[in-house]
Design brief:
Distance between the termini: 32 Å
CATH superfamily of the domain at 3-204: Tetratricopeptide repeat domain
CATH topology of the domain at 3-204: Serine Threonine Protein Phosphatase 5, Tetratricopeptide repeat
Helix content: over 70%
CATH class of the domain at 3-204: Mainly Alpha
Order of helices and strands: EEHHHHHHHHHHHHHHHHHHHHHEHEEHEE
CATH architecture of the domain at 3-204: Alpha Horseshoe
Strand content: 5-15%
Structural class: alpha+beta
Number of helices: 23
Largest sheet: 5 strands, mixed
Length: 663
């Protein structure tokens, strides 16, 4: 995932990417990188000059910028200038990101980290913190481009921890906030994403207008365009305009977003001019993927204007660039556009050739989606199998407990007989035998408990995998089908009735995708893994309120530090089950969730204003029994207070340390 602009593609907005490599250049454009030039060794001064020149050329000549960064690295290493050596590795990482080489960017950033961390531990300072933030930012960007969004968000958050103690690093913090917002957008949290972009913009009163703000303004403009808020998009673009200059890293992305704004205003001529300017910047910068998408947008404008020859030329150029990157989905889109142009030009054989190539790519993508569906079915089967194993283990535990009680009774009887028959000496022998048997039984129980804990851990692991496959696999496939239906419904000349049916199908797919994502979040919410129990409980409360459920209020005390990951999952499952009971059975209007931590003790209280019930009466449902079983497994206590017509209060007390052997 990366920062987003929009290009026209078959009449609908299409997101395209630009890199997140600005932070290394921000570091170079700020305060002097190292000691003052006055009195500094000649090689140190030359290394700093080479780094500044590399930063200045990064937007226009990445090859020359890379040569200068390597020269700076060699000079810094030769004289033992650690800061310059780390800074050179970071600059090489930023240039690798510009060229789209994520693995090399990760390697260079890791080299920089290995150099600067010992310096920071020895003597922390603002400039070393800024350098560490730049490294974390580039590691996040590399993970981001490889689809590892949760890991990317963790890197960006680490970058903020380095920068927040130093108010003078506000310019660098703007870039990190922008990137973190981009990552949250792909994770399906547009509101939080916009919040981080606005935080970046809010830092501007303390700074003079700087290029670090440009990506944030462009992201806000793109989000407004996506939501059809054209006036808001115009304001964001107006704020971005003073920050654009010919040497700006994001000049091309600015004109690309401006072109999309003109398209929404139905100003085709102005849109064409903006896209052409964006293409010039993308070509000079060597951003092949962005060039391909800009060429695709211009070709579609040519096709709409009837200039099929020019449209064909641009599409062939876009095809060559897209084939270099090897991404099948954009390649299929370009091939489909070429087929349409050839068909419109009366070149049936050429159109058929491009249609066949596009279909082969789409079949490949569909096969991958089918394999993911098969994995999901296998996961469901294994989950049911593990549930059966867990029930068998619990039955075995009950049998062993009964046998233990019987053995204790028999042991007591034997002890009495031995006391009567053999006296004090025989009593000692009997006690020794009894303790030996009891120790063996306890060991058996401990092994059974460990096995049950392993099964529960396996269930959570399978839930995570199933949630990931649902979201990334089936969700992605449905989104692709949705795009095709929407594109087909807007084809020129399509009769009104089929177009309406296609639009309705697309709307139903939107609803299906939303339900699928909700299922994935219920199985294993991303917020729980990435941001911890506190954020996950607030998200769960918001989701329950948004699904026509009761209004849920969450109150947390003493949770400044995160709990153990396994305990966070178990507490989350308890709250999830209790909220489901309040919605399904109690028909509550208000639910209060309180989670309090006092030293090693953890107390959970869930109170609702529903219909209530008699706790002493037999319960037909499995919800409360499931809660009791989970609390018993955690070694905690549970108390239920309720009566008909007066709501229900469930109190659970746990220890922050899991039982011995817990996952």
């Amino acid at each position: 995932m990366s920062s987003a602009a929009f290009l026209v593609c078959r009449g609908r907005p299409r997101r395209t990417a630009w890199g997140r490599w600005l932070l290394a250049l921000v570091l170079l454009s700020g305060s002097p990188a190292g000691a003052s030039a006055l009195g500094a060794p000649a090689d140190t001064t030359r290394a700093k000059d080479a780094l500044r020149q590399s930063a200045a050329l990064a937007a226009t000549d990445t090859a020359r910028a890379g040569q200068l960064a390597k020269q700076a690295l060699a000079m810094s290493t030769a004289v033992g200038y650690g800061y310059g050596e780390a800074h050179s590795w970071l600059q090489l990482s930023a240039l690798a990101l510009i060229r789209g080489n994520q693995l090399r960017a990760q390697h260079y950033a890791t080299r920089a980290q290995a150099v600067v961390q010992p310096l920071y531990r020895r003597q922390p300072s603002a400039r070393l913190a800024r350098l560490l933030a730049g490294i974390a930012n580039n590691l996040g960007s590399a993970a981001d481009h490889q689809g590892q969004y949760a890991q990317a968000a963790a890197h960006y958050l680490a970058a903020t921890t380095y920068l927040l103690p130093y108010p003078e690093q506000a310019a660098t913090l703007q870039t990190v906030y922008t990137n973190l917002g981009n990552c949250l957008l792909v994770l399906g949290q547009p509101t939080r994403a916009a919040g981080y972009w606005r935080r970046a913009v809010a830092l501007s009163p303390h700074l003079s207008p700087a290029p670090e703000l440009l990506p944030a303004y462009l992201q806000l403009a793109a989000l407004h365009l996506q939501n059809a808020h054209l006036d808001s998009a115009d304001l964001a673009l107006a704020s971005a305009r003073p920050l654009v200059h010919p040497g700006s890293l994001y000049a091309g992305e600015y004109y690309g977003t401006l072109g999309q704004y003109y398209l929404r205003r139905q100003q085709a001529s102005a849109a064409r001019q903006a896209f052409t300017q964006a293409l010039g910047y993308a070509t000079r910068k060597g951003a092949a993927g962005y060039q391909a998408q800009l060429l695709l947008g211009l070709a579609q404008l040519d096709q709409q204007a009837g200039d099929l020859a020019q449209a064909r030329t641009r599409l062939l150029q876009s095809l060559a660039l897209t084939e270099q990157r090897g991404d099948p989905q954009p390649l299929a889109t370009v091939l489909q556009s070429l087929a349409q142009v050839e068909e419109q030009a009366g070149q049936g054989m050429a159109a058929l050739h491009y249609y066949r190539r596009s279909r082969q790519l789409l079949d490949t993508l569909a096969s991958a989606a089918a394999r993911r569906q098969l994995n999901q079915l296998e996961t469901r089967f294994r989950t049911r199998e593990q549930a059966q194993q867990l029930r068998s283990l619990r039955q075995a535990q009950a049998t062993q407990a009964q046998a233990l009680r019987q053995q204790r009774q028999l042991s007591a009887l034997y002890l009495a007989l031995l006391l009567a028959l053999l006296g004090v000496g025989a009593l000692g022998l009997a006690l020794w035998q009894y303790r030996r048997r009891l120790a063996a039984q306890r060991q058996t129980q401990a092994q059974a408990q460990h096995a049950a804990q392993a099964v529960l851990h396996g269930q959570e692991t399978e839930r995570r995998r199933l949630a990931r496959d649902l979201h990334d696999g089936l969700g992605g496939m449905l989104a692709t089908v949705r795009l095709y239906l929407a594109s087909a419904s807007q084809r020129p000349g399509l009769p009104a009735e089929p177009a309406q049916l296609l639009a309705q199908a697309a709307a139903h797919l939107d609803s299906t995708i939303g339900e699928l994502r909700q299922v994935a979040r219920n199985l294993m919410p991303e917020a729980l893994l990435t941001f911890g129990l506190s954020q996950a409980l607030h998200d769960l409360a918001a989701a329950r309120a948004g699904a026509e459920g009761p209004q849920v209020q969450v109150q947390l005390y003493g949770l400044d530090e995160r709990l153990a990951p396994a305990l966070e999952v178990e507490v989350y499952r308890l709250v999830q089950e209790l909220l489901a009971n309040a919605r399904r059975h109690a028909r509550a209007q208000q639910v209060l969730v309180q989670l309090m931590r006092h030293g090693p003790e953890l107390q959970l209280v869930v109170e609702d204003d529903g219909c209530g019930f008699d706790p002493a009466a037999p319960q037909a449902g499995v919800g409360l029994r499931s809660v009791r079983a989970r609390v018993q497994y955690l070694g905690g206590t549970l108390e239920v207070q309720s009566r008909p017509g007066h709501g229900t209060t469930v109190s659970i007390e746990l220890q922050t340390a899991l039982p011995s052997g817990g996952a």
